[in-house]
Inverse folding.
């Protein structure tokens, strides 16, 4: 099957799925009443979901309140108190917020700009699109290895060309003011192409006669962007933003790789803090409490983002 | 004026795309330059060029083991996923039962609960099950896929019921219907799912790093990381570039060959 056929097929599929009748024939109703059939169909998935999604959430909640790590019995808020008084945790959270804003905002703006400029199907634009999407297909560890070299003080790609301009060497990964921005740049490089794909799909769904009509009425490019394109891209934002938030909290492969032995506080992120506490320091209580804060924060943020966007979205009827 | 604006936009995007390509470009150039040239960072070197870095990189790590382990991990996950997501997808698409909506919502909750986020409790579970430092252990958390179930549910709903009812009249059982009739019809969606699944697990790092501790179990990404930290001391960046190409190469090559299909599947799959 050709890609274009596949796109058409998948597009049709989502439409049909949303309007297909729910009334089931007799055979399906009978099968649905049979607990053995249901167990055989849903059981395999449920077993693994229970073991590696529901149970760990429960476990991490219990562990976070358990005081055994403190040499006490019973349950309490001890781990959370320790977490709050740990300045490394505060720094990791603050860094993660900076990292999330610093990666998501530029990535989405760049992705939208690239999508707007490269949406027509010419040979040139196809090649340029490929160049921007390519980083998506290399492991984040490989991207980190590449950028370690790019940031290398003195001989690295940046300093090599800065030296030609007469600018001296900088320890990009080593100095407090550039360590976190250095990770942010890797993430933007890696993810922008991914988000661009969603914006391209969203732009393709906007009816061209709507834009033509606005053009006839004398709307400027900026006006069309603000009053037609951006509102109609609402659903795309509602879809991409949770993915971006999830990425900002769960992608730390580059943080682990760019600093042998771990990052200093200047570039530490929440997930690496959890990893340090639970795996390296063997402090499951503190690690669990930090995980609860992380998962809870992610859940709250994605819900908030969706609600805020839902209110401002113009879904096509 | 409008045509000019469009041209300017394309020009800027072109400059951006070239900037995006620089890390790749450097990796390609450096990988083919032997030794440790002073101008290793140069994007326009005069040579000499050779395959020396590739042979060096290949010799400095058990790449065959890493490739095999990565293939086993991605393949094992995918095979089990095909079974679990088809079965559950069918139940949610076709059957009527009590608590269906609630159960479906519970399935979708997994989208946020990825294994690297629940690293600590998942490690506890694995060691209790005796699966720590084993291939099944590194694969198990991915055997159920909420995203896959969702995709198969949508796909099965688009297939006319007549097919399966005709087959059932001929005496086919439910599982024959799912795996012999519906699954082949759902092949485009399954291909999209397979691409996304293999790509994301091929690139997975933190989870295999923590679960697999013995060297003979290591996968490509973890191998590359240990290789990279070893290289920094010797600062033979050409070898590191070659090693990075060896790790990222297969997927990158597949992407370049099948890029249009890759792109389509990623757009319609949403979450990795």
């Amino acid at each position: 099957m050709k890609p274009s056929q596949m796109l058409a097929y998948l597009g049709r599929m989502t439409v049909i799925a949303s309007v297909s009748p729910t009334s089931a024939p007799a055979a399906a109703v009978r099968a649905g009443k049979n607990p053995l059939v249901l167990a055989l169909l849903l059981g395999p998935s449920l077993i693994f979901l229970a073991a590696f999604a529901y149970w760990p959430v429960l476990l991490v909640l219990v562990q976070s309140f358990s005081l055994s790590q403190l040499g006490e019995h019973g349950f309490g808020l001890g781990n959370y108190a320790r977490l709050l008084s740990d300045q490394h945790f505060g720094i990791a959270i603050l860094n993660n917020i900076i990292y999330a804003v610093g990666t998501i905002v530029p990535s989405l703006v760049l992705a939208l700009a690239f999508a707007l400029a490269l949406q027509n199907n010419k040979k040139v634009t196809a090649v340029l699109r490929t160049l921007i999407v390519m980083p998506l297909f290399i492991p984040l560890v490989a991207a980190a290895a590449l950028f370690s070299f790019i940031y290398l003080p003195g001989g690295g790609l940046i300093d090599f060309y800065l030296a030609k301009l007469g600018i001296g060497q900088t320890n990009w990964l080593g100095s407090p003011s550039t360590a976190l921005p250095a990770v942010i740049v890797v993430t933007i490089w890696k993810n922008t192409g991914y988000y661009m794909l969603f914006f391209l799909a969203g732009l393709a769904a906007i009816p061209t006669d709507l834009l033509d009509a606005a053009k006839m009425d004398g709307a400027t490019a900026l006006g069309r962007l603000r009053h037609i394109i951006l509102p109609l891209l609402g659903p795309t934002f509602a879809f991409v933003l949770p993915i971006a938030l999830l990425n900002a909290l769960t992608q730390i492969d580059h943080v682990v790789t760019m600093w042998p032995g771990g990052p200093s506080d200047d570039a530490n992120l929440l997930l690496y803090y959890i990893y340090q506490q639970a795996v390296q320091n063997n402090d499951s209580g503190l690690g669990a409490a930090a995980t609860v804060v992380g998962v809870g924060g992610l859940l709250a943020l994605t819900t908030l983002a969706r609600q805020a966007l839902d209110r401002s979205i113009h879904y096509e009827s | 004026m409008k045509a000019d604006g469009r041209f300017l936009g394309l020009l800027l995007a072109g400059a951006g795309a070239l900037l995006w390509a620089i890390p790749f470009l450097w990796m390609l150039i450096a990988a083919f330059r032997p030794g440790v040239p002073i101008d290793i960072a140069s994007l326009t070197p005069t040579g000499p060029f050779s395959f020396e870095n590739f042979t060096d990189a290949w010799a400095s790590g058990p790449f065959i083991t890493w490739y095999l382990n990565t293939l086993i991990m991605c393949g094992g996950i995918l095979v089990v996923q095909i079974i679990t997501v088809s079965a559950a997808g069918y139940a949610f698409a076709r059957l009527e039962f009590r608590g269906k909506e609630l159960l479906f919502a519970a399935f979708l909750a997994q989208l946020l609960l990825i294994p690297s986020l629940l690293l600590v409790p998942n490690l506890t579970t694995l060691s209790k099950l005796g699966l720590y430092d084993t291939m099944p252990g590194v694969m198990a958390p991915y055997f159920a896929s909420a995203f896959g179930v969702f995709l198969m549910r949508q796909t099965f709903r688009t297939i006319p019921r007549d097919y399966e009812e005709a087959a059932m009249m001929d005496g086919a059982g439910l599982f024959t219907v799912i795996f012999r009739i519906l699954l082949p019809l759902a092949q485009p969606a399954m291909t999209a799912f397979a691409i996304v699944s293999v790509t994301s697990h091929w690139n997975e790092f933190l989870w295999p790093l923590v679960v697999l501790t013995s060297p003979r179990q290591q996968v490509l990404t973890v191998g590359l990381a240990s290789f990279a930290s070893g290289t920094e001391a010797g600062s033979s960046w050409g070898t590191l570039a070659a090693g990075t190409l060896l790790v990222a190469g297969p997927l990158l090559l597949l992407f370049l060959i099948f890029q249009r299909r890759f792109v389509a599947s990623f757009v319609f799959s949403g979450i990795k």
Notes: The two ends of chain A are 30 Å apart (CA to CA). Chain A has 15 helices and no strands. The longest helix of chain A spans residues 35-65. Confidence is low (pLDDT under 50) at residues 1-22 of chain A.
